[in-house]
UniProtKB/TrEMBL annotation:
InterPro entries: F-box-like_dom_sf, F-box_dom, LRR_dom_sf. Coiled coil: none annotated. One of its GO terms (cellular component) is nucleus. Pfam families: F-box-like. Residues 28-74 form the F-box domain. Transmembrane segments: none annotated. SMART domains: FBOX. This is Putative F-box/LRR-repeat protein C02F5.7-like. It comes from the Eukaryota.
Amino acid sequence: MELAMEANHADGPPRKKSRHLVEQNLAKRDLAALPYDILVNIFKYLDLKTIGVCATLCSTLNNVSKDSSLYQKVTLKYNMNKEFLESFVSKISYPKELCIEYKFFDNHSDFEDYSEFDRYVRIALTKCGEFVQSIRIDSCRNDDILLLLSECVNLKELALYRCKSSFQTLTSITTLTTIKCVSCHFPQKIASEVIKSNEGLRKLYLSDNTNVNVNEVCENLSRYNDHMREIYFSERKKLRAKSLRTLGRLTKLRSLALVSGTGFECDPEDSLEQIAAGCSKLERLIIYGWKEINDDNLMAILHMCTQLKELDLRGLNITIRSCREAALSLPFLKTMDVIKCNRVKKSQLAKLKQDFIEIDIPLE
């Protein structure tokens, strides 16, 4: 009897463990038994790390983890470990969006060795470049990597942040509809040539770049890019009224932002009148920090651009007269910001806000 009891005691724990394994296997089998398309849709809600864990559970989930539709938006970061990058890059086939992030670069950054990361970036661009339609690259200083942009023959959207290169291949790209460059270091003339090469360009965002002549850019836009809809300028090079005047030829323009760093110290002359006459369908206008603009310069815009919904005039040399005229003349106006306009008193703005409650007018 003692032997029988010992046998029962010995058999007990294994039976419990076995039952636990059976339940685990049933749960795994139930998930894997779902139709492939449903599994793919479930995986689309998971982050990359979780997809990687699921891929180790069984061959079915491993196959699902390799589905190219899971990797339409791909981000490669410099701090991803080697094993993850190797597995990740092997699964990418037809990405539409690609984001490549190096460590944030500024003038005080120490030298970093990105040779390992560069290798996987190079593989991704060479393997999948022809399928990429949108690419963002942050803090890349490797000319060899940026030259691989030539692989992206169907590229429509390009965003570069804190990059430095010869950018020689950029001028060979002719499919761009959106360009965004922030704090990049370009060789002379390259930015203007890229704009000239992409006649289908619709959106342009330039801020704090080196060797970007915004006057040349304006003139090239007016000659070669008549489909432009959005422009944002915040550049170091001083913008001349003569060049700004040429933007009046862009009749499809819907959004114009002129943000001053040191770039506006000239008399606007009749440039705003020319823009108002040619770009009468503007819906968003930002003119920030241009102290030479007064009430008289602005009136043409307020009377002719009647589709305006957003007006940002911070730091201009205007009075409450322009503010009230905008509120009266622009039937679709939703937002008007005139903070830092020294000739506009807070009490005047408060009264205007009371009179036009449908317009959002910040007081501070």
